[in-house]
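New to this. Help decode both lines:
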Amino acid sequence: MGTETTTRPIIFSGEMVQAILGGRKTQTRRVWKKPRGHTNHDVYPRYIGGRFELSSNGFCIGESINCPYGKIGDRLWVREKHNIECPYPAEEKCGHPDHVYYWATEEPVVRESFSTPWRPSIFMPRWASRITLEITGVRVERVQDITPKDAKSEGVPAPQSEVALGLPDQYALHRFKHLWDSINAKRGYGWDANPWVWVVEFQRQGE
């Protein structure tokens, strides 16, 4: 009997949605947070014997952990900034994809044409999601362990100045570091803190 797969939501910014749709983003890194009840600063995750376990001072402490984003073969449906123009009173139950507009791929003139505010990603209902990802790999590592190749797979776009010089890949690591800090530094998980992270590799379904 095969292992059952699950489907979970995951939030991406408009910029990262564009990278996924453009085939440039195939990885995401999310902070690993210590389980409740563990005050030991030396506790960290390791992949041992086919499963993730908590370790301390180089020794396994016998407690298994699961990646909150899933395992290989599971699916993630993407939540993104959106708006719903629906003739029905209960918009969140509309169920018609044609009534959904996505911030990431709309022209500025369309973005400004709505009389209602754009909805944050967290409020996107499942039926309105247009992107489903299949997990192809999961691991844990320190954020600073990212390689230039993996930094490129994070999909952070290169500025036009780098593209013009033919250097979009050379500075991928620098761009990722800047993006990481812009999201996580204020939460205490900046690049210099070098936190443990879940590395989730994926491919977009339908590709």
